[in-house]
Amino acid sequence: MIEATDPVLVAKNLKKRYEDINAVNGISFEVRRGEIFGMLGPNGAGKTTTVEILEGMRDADSGEAYVNGINVKENPTAVKAIIGVQLQQNAFFDNLNLAEIVELYAQLYDSSVDPIEILSRVGLADRKGAMYKQLSGGQKQRLSIAVALVNDPVVLFLDEPTTGLDPQARRSLWALIQGIQKAGSTIVLTTHYMEEAEELCDRIAIVENGEIIALDTPDALIDQLLDSGFKPNKRTREATLDDVFLNLTGHELRD
Amino acid sequence: MKLYLALTVASMKMYFRNKQALFWALFFPLVIMLIFGVMNFDAYNSPNVGIVDRANNPASQGLIQALSGTDDQEVLSVSTGTQEEMLDELEYGDNKAMIIIPEDFGISGQFSELQVTYDERYQQERAVIGTVLTQVTDAVFKQMAQVPDEYRVEANIGISESFIEGQGQGFQGWLIPGIAAMAIMQTGLFAVVFTLVRFKAQGVLRRLKATPIGASHFLAGQLTNKAIVVILQTYILVLVGSLVLGVSVGQGRLGAWVDLTILSLLGGALFIAIGLAISGWAKSEETAAPVANIISLPMMFLSGVFFPLSVMPDWVISFAKYLPLTYLADGMRAVTVEGAAITTLGSELLGLGIWMAISFVIATRLFKWE
Known about the structure:
The complex is a heterodimer. By secondary structure, chain A is α/β, with parallel strands linked by helices.
């Protein structure tokens, strides 16, 4: 029996080796229900491989992973049915419009959701008749999140959702992700934007060389650093350049 | 089943919204067929004549030689065989006349009579063949009897004429099933290769792998879509071709359409399997396109699509007759032009079957999702 207080996702000592590199070298963590869990790290640190193991898209060499109590390696299909996935590189069919794409994916999950309702959750209802290639970068990411929501997932995996977006589109996507969390979803997010992790994540794991080298809330991690006597070599100001940019160019989406 | 249907419908939508695919699958072969059909290449060729050589002696061989002319200057396009074969060619094939050389031909002092049967629909060819025959027999007789040119002697070679109405469909009849077979090859190869390789390169197949269904159902929907397109293609090409170019389909036998459907599906499956093998192996459209072209282009010209294999050198024929497109084009031609039932097409079906087995084995070995 799964209790509401049980972690929704458990990774136990996951390991994955590609030829001569240890992509994932003993990663363990738990994700609590309703939180946004961030995985941070430089490119090639092992974030994506870890997430793919949890999604059932790649087998770990050793270790165990559970989503909602289901062993991922033993029953990847059952896991895929209850998770939502947004991949780093997303592409959808050329000659279908957005409503048709969402509907097709709903059918793949045997879900009977209204495609228009899903599109309106990500703010794309008015683009329902558009084709994928007509969308802007931010809209494409919104569509791939919409597609990931068709089965009302227990956990939503977002792999670098704001990479390549302008500040306006990024902030608007953050608001969307926070809205999805408020509606009751658990989210696992990978990113290499620190301000994104700070803004969105309840807890973050910092991954380096296939290992988790720190795991805590963003505030706790910053406090630990300051307690160790760290002094920033740059004067901290009340506002950032990001604020300057958004103040000058406005918060409205351009896409 | 519901899912399979939904995926097939989605694949159909994607396909029919792709203007470029439609152009290559339907418009292009249709235009080629109509252009070549209207040009009527029959008119530029020496008439086809079938000869039954019952005498089979130096005299009869000399006659056949004279009627054929030289390699540089062909007089008549001569083929030889049994009376049954030649009659068949006259009635259903491309031959315009059949000449029977009797046993007693060339025996000195004996009067012998060549029996010529014409297809009465081709009066122009009849005139050409008749003139050639008179002149050649005259010359052959003079040579045989060693009569000097300045003497005119009544030849002891007679010619009797009879007529039948042939059912052959000429070059147009040749072209239509050939183009339909070529279109099946193009759809099987290119439509499969380009959609799958693009989906693979863009990561669409990867995204599908993240769903509980996986990408194999999606692939099944895509392949069903291509099979339906192949059948539609055949119907449209054969129907439009027969109406515009005035060719009857299957000698009016309605079952010919069923046989064409079966042959289209067999050919479609064969070329789709080849397409799968290429798209399984290739990582991008840039590598897939040349391979698909290397496979399809030679077949387009070596498999008797635009002109009969028989016009090519023997060494080409010796391997071209084993090409998959040759089997498909021959089978579709037999059904469309000669009105043959599919059950009589033993070697064509066997050839298609063997190629299909080979392609499926290669496709399953080579196919990779990423």
